[in-house]
Amino acid sequence: MGQTRSALHDRVSGMSLETKLHPTRLTLIDIAMGVGVALTWGLGIVFSKAAIAHFPPILLMGLRFTVTALVLVWFVRIPRGQLAALFGIALISAALQYSLTFTGLKGLDAGVAALIVQLEVPFLVLVGAIFLREKPGWRKWAGIGLAFFGVYQIAGEPRISAALGSVLLVVSGAFVWAIGQAMIRKLKDIDGLTVTAWIAVMAAPQLFAVSLVVEDGHWQAIQSAGLVVWGTVLYLGLVMTAFGYGLWYTLIRRNPVSHVAPFLLLLPVFAVLGGVVFLGEVMNAGVMLGGAIVIAGVAIILSDKG
Questions:
Q1: This model's pTM is above 0.90
Q2: pLDDT tens by residue, 103-157
Q3: What is the pLDDT, as a whole number, of residue 10?
Q4: Could you tell me which of 265, 231, 268 has the C-alpha nearest to residue 47?
Q5: Is the pLDDT of residue 165 over 90?
Q6: Residue 280 class from Cβ within 10 Å (0-12 exposed, 13-18 middle, 19+ buried)?
Q7: Of 97, 108, 96, which Cα lies nearest the Cα of 151?
Q8: Least confident of 46-50, 153-157, 258-262
Q9: What gap in Å lies between CA 109 and CA 291, rounded to an integer?
Q10: What pLDDT score does 2 carry?
Q11: In Å, how far from its chain's centre is CA 251?
Q12: By C-alpha distance, which of 42, 26, 97, 11 is closest to 239?
């Protein structure tokens, strides 16, 4: 899901005293926006799966970030003094992460990939514990264990186990994403929209370079792409990234992140439903059980205020 979810980490590890003493209540507009974020990002995975049938996955991500960069870069300042750090973050949290995740998506159903991607939250807690010296409570550890058990349940299904390499790619992408978020947390005096815009500016050429090395058929794919495929590229760049992250930033500016983070649990639900409706995917009982376990584990992590 990208770099904006770094804001989630600041509240996953605990709420501020002010928030505890003065809890806020979400408005109907806030609720609609939260559902909109999950819907936008969930369907983005579904549409990405459809577009990967035409575009090589890393090339698709390069095109996606090109669109985002061209839309956002004009509205943010140049973060002088932080360009080198942003280049490194783009390399880890965008170029490497999206290369792993969406190459893995090529071999999996969109709904299955969306469920596995939920490991981003447990990995975020683990990275915080290992590299940032944070101390998760026992409930977070229980949630982490439950989430990984859920992925184990999913991977054990015969149809999924045959694509174990794709599962490992998506899991690796989730881990790399968490490392990228730890890097983003070290940035000072820069707003989230600027981070999003400039990571897109730097990630696009990085992704194109990786794609040229490990993928082929670029020019043929671009030449033969129809309106539906290019419409998907625009959706990923404009709706999923620019608009979806815009909604998310508005929510976290107006509310404690701990209040809006649970909306992210709807993301795999929308992805599963979208996969069934738009792609004709079939989710068997074993995968659904594993997905429910993953979501339950992530829910425990997000609900732990300690």
A1: no
A2: 999 999 999 999 999 998 899 888 888 877 778 888 889 999 999 999 999 988 8
A3: 47
A4: 231
A5: yes
A6: exposed
A7: 108
A8: 258-262
A9: 13
A10: 53
A11: 17
A12: 42
Cβ–Cβ contacts within 10 Å for residue 112, how many? 31
Residue with tokens 């469920």: 115
Distance CA 205, CA 63 (A): 9
So what's the pLDDT on residue 201?
A: 95
Dihedral sign for Cα 110, 267, 93, 223, please.
Answer: positive
Per-residue pLDDT, averaged over 177-184, amounts to: 84
Output the six-digit token pair for 41: 């990002």
Q: How is residue 264 written in tokens?
A: 């992210």
Under the banding of pLDDT at 50, 70 and 90, the label for residue 36 is very high
